[in-house]
């Protein structure tokens, strides 16, 4: 009997090829994203691992500084005195060779005088070590030209030479992003081939003396790499050096490689979670489509299953038969999804390569784990989705089933509606409570409330569908008369099915509303902060390392410039806690508005202005002496002379020039932004243009008005939103598929009814119009639920960010939400095109005599 039931299941699948295709496609969309995510991140991870396998080759121990403060780099390097002692103790320590490294981040100009774009990969300057002296003779090899011999000569890796359209003999500029940052004229005298390099990576090697002057203060060395004499293992060498120099960090070459791999794998893991979260959205939505599909399939096959029951098939056999069909569908969809996922990963890899992402390139890493995960997810989701319909089908008595075609829509919704109502109250209470708090715990409470509300929608939306669609239908029915009334009746005939079909759009629009609210709120906060805090006419920003300090003199010399104030980060411990403050290079009151609370705002050399938030916990007041200390050994005491209202641009504290000089060594001083005022009566655009011309040799400086600055910061948020919206398009695509699937199967289910309507005079175009209206009502119902829930969650979530952004205000992106709502109606029409055409082609007589 089991073999017979399997044959029946397979023949049933083969007899309904279109239905099979639609169901398989819903599985494919979800599993392909899972497969693509795992294959892509696996490929990038393997490429990085292969890359880092060639790092620190020949190095038995590497010595670096331990200095770090709150994740902010404060590394001056290894004191030269320690390096001298290390070299003097080579024999005692068991050291064979000592290789000194002087490194720093740089920007190199291309042939047109603009910065070579690295796509996010590092751009590094270092000292050239001849191959016969290097611990890894194959690490950097000169393939064209010669080694640098003068401080203004460099050798450049071949990828950077190609991207910058440079060659041996080319004159260009280099800007070191640590230290003063003065542009340096150099000549490319050689081209190198690196054993390790990611796409976009740039490495310029100088003479040892040139690199030492450029990247250090002359009293420190960036790294010291050691090789051991025969008979001394890397671990033994590490232990000996660590004991002799306890203030330095010592690692073996294997540990250097492992740390590099761990750091990138941690990033890839986070990236993978993001990708898989969107795959989960696709699977959740796909689950409802599969559930809907099997519910309708089982409803349409009630008589067939009843006949099987009548000839001896048991309930368990009926259930297993439907689950076997689900297994076949899930397995087929998963295999196809895995193949498409590989294509998606290859396409994403090619796209990132073309855009210069800075990621290493390599062959696709198709692991068994990705295949097994894809198969498990696809098969399990499909079988779980089909279980409830299969179980219901097995409970229908044969005699009852043979009377008339059954559907699952008549089942009582009272219990699930009650559960949904309780969960909705709990969810609403959770997000409301979260909105009254600040910080991560409050955000977590809002997140919990969001999950409860989503489950509440799943449970309660069938009951909501009738009143909401009824109200919507009352509006749409007027222009279409009886066709509108018929569409409204069809849309609420089976509330379970309607709710499951609409859920995809509910989830999609809810996420659009939440993400859009966060993005709009952040952008509004940036705009408000710039407008309220900055009075400067021109703003200069640079790369991730900031604006070179040397550029201030060039800007001040520009005709029409009145005030130039650089804002510089101060990474220090204040009262034992890490806090990054700001040190203005001039009178901050000329270029920014500080909202005074109390005290004097003339910032003297050793004065300290603190925000009201920063002053609260330690109980500071005017005249308090505050000790500031850095991770690299410098410290100073400053006096609190004023308290201001904290804003995103002012930071927790401001210190004077003398305190800044005492705390931050010259080599680590940098400006994260420069604010400029033009002279009274001068036009800003011409002065802005002259500033741009004066600073072009610094390569990374952008000269903007406050409005342009705000727009550029908002533009970064827009880029992130574009990516998120693009990925959310997956759920909307699956939503359209779900509507097509449901309407197509509904047309089959209502074949006799449509035939009767055609027999009594309904025209084909009227049949199509009815299907269109039904689809639009379902789409708008789902979108409305998502919009309401998403706006509530987004608004409450924004309020929790007041812990980090005190002035943030929730801004609802009504334009985006209403546009998406309108597009949902359009999607409803598009989804109904094919089912409507099929319905209109129904032949009355064939339909009437059909089962």
From TrEMBL:
MacB-like periplasmic core domain span: 21-243, 498-692
Membrane topology according to the record: Multi-pass membrane protein
Start and end residues of each ABC3 transporter permease C-terminal domain: 277-397, 727-844
Subcellular location(s) per record: Cell membrane
Primary location: membrane
Regions crossing the membrane: 270-291, 322-345, 365-388, 413-435, 441-459, 498-518, 723-748, 771-798, 810-834
Superkingdom assignment: Bacteria
Alphabetized PANTHER family for the sequence: ABC TRANSPORTER PERMEASE YTRF (PTHR30572:SF4), MEMBRANE COMPONENT OF TRANSPORTER-RELATED (PTHR30572)
Membership in a protein family: Belongs to the ABC-4 integral membrane protein family.
Protein name: Putative ABC transport system permease protein
Organism: Yimella lutea
Organism ancestry: Bacteria, Bacillati, Actinomycetota, Actinomycetes, Micrococcales
């Amino acid at each position: 009997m089991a073999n017979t039931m399997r044959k029946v299941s397979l023949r049933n699948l083969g007899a309904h090829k279109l239905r099979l295709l639609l169901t398989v496609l819903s599985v494919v969309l979800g599993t392909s994203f899972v497969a693509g995510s795992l294959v892509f991140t696996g490929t990038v991870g393997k490429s990085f691992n292969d890359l880092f396998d060639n790092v620190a080759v020949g190095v038995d121990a590497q010595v670096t500084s331990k200095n770090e403060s709150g994740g902010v780099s404060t590394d001056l390097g290894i004191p030269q005195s320690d390096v001298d002692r290390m070299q003097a103790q080579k024999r005692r320590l068991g050291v064979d060779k000592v290789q000194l490294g002087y490194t720093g981040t740089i920007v190199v100009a291309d042939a047109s005088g603009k910065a070579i774009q690295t796509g996010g990969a590092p751009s590094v300057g270092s000292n050239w070590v001849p191959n016969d002296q290097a611990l890894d003779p194959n690490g950097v090899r000169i393939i064209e030209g010669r080694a640098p011999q003068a401080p203004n000569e460099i050798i450049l890796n071949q990828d950077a030479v190609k991207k910058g359209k440079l060659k041996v003999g080319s004159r260009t500029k280099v800007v070191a992003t640590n230290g003063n940052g003065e542009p340096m004229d150099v000549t490319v005298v050689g081209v190198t081939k690196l054993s390790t390099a990611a796409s976009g990576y740039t490495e310029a090697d100088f003479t040892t003396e040139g690199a030492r002057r450029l990247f250090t203060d002359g009293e420190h060395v960036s790294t010291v790499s050691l090789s051991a004499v025969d008979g001394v293992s890397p671990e033994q060498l590490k232990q000996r050096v660590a004991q002799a120099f306890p203030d330095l960090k010592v690692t073996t070459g294997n540990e250097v490689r492992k740390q590099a791999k761990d750091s990138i794998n941690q990033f890839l893991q986070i990236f993978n979670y993001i990708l898989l979260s969107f795959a989960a959205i696709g699977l959740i939505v796909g689950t409802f489509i599969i559930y809907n599909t099997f519910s309708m399939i089982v409803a349409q096959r009630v008589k067939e299953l009843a006949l099987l029951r009548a000839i001896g098939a048991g309930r368990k056999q009926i259930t297993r038969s439907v689950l076997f069909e689900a297994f076949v569908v899930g397995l087929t969809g998963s295999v196809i999804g895995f193949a498409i996922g590989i294509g998606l990963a290859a396409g994403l890899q090619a796209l990132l390569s073309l855009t210069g992402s800075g990621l290493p390139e390599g062959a696709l890493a198709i692991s068994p784990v990705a295949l097994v995960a894809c198969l498990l997810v696809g098969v399990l989701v499909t079988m779980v989705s089909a279980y409830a319909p299969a179980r219901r089908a097995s409970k229908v008595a044969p005699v009852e089933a043979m009377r008339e075609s059954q559907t699952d829509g008549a089942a009582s919704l009272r219990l699930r509606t009650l559960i949904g109502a309780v969960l909705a109250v709990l969810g609403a209470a959770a997000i409301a409570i979260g909105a009254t708090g600040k910080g991560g715990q409050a955000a977590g409470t809002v997140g919990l409330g969001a999950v409860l509300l989503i489950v509440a929608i799943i449970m309660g939306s069938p009951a909501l569908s009738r009143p909401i669609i009824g109200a919507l239908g009352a509006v749409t029915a007027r222009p279409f008369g009886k066709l509108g009334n018929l569409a409204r009746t069809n849309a609420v005939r089976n509330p379970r099915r309607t709710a499951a079909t609409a859920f995809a759009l509910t989830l999609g629009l809810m996420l659009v509303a939440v993400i859009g609210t966060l993005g709009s709120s952040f952008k509004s906060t940036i705009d408000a902060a710039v407008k309220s805090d900055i009075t400067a006419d021109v703003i200069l920003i640079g790369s991730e390392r900031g604006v070179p300090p040397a550029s201030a003199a060039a800007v001040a010399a520009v005709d029409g410039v009145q005030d130039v104030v650089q804002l510089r980060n101060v990474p220090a411990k204040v009262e034992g806690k890490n806090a990054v403050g700001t040190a203005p290079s001039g009178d901050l009151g000329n270029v920014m508005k500080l909202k005074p609370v109390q005290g004097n705002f003339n910032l003297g050399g050793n004065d300290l202005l603190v925000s009201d938030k920063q002053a609260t916990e330690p109980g500071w007041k005017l005249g308090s002496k505050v000790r500031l200390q850095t991770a690299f050994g410098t410290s100073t005491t400053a006096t609190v002379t004023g308290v201001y209202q904290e804003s995103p641009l002012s930071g927790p504290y401001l210190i004077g020039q003398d305190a800044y000089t005492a705390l931050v060594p010259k080599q680590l001083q940098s400006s994260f932004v420069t604010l400029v005022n033009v002279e009274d009566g001068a036009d800003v655009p011409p002065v802005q243009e002259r500033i741009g011309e004066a600073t072009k040799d610094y390569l990374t400086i952008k000269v903007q008005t406050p409005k342009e600055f705000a727009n550029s910061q908002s533009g970064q948020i827009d880029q992130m939103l574009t990516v998120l919206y693009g990925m959310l398009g997956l759920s909307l695509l699956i939503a359209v598929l779900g509507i097509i699937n449901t309407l197509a199967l509904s047309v089959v289910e209502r074949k006799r009814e449509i035939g009767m309507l055609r027999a009594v005079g309904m025209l084909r175009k009227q049949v199509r119009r009815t299907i269109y209206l039904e689809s639009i009502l379902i789409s708008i119902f789902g979108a409305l639920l998502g919009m309401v829930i998403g706006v509530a969650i987004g608004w409450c979530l924004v309020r929790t960010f007041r812990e980090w952004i005190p002035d943030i205000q929730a801004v609802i992106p009504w334009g985006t939400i209403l546009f998406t709502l309108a597009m949902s109606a359009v999607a409803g029409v598009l989804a109904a095109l094919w089912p409507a055409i099929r319905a209109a082609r129904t032949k009355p007589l064939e339909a009437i005599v059909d089962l």
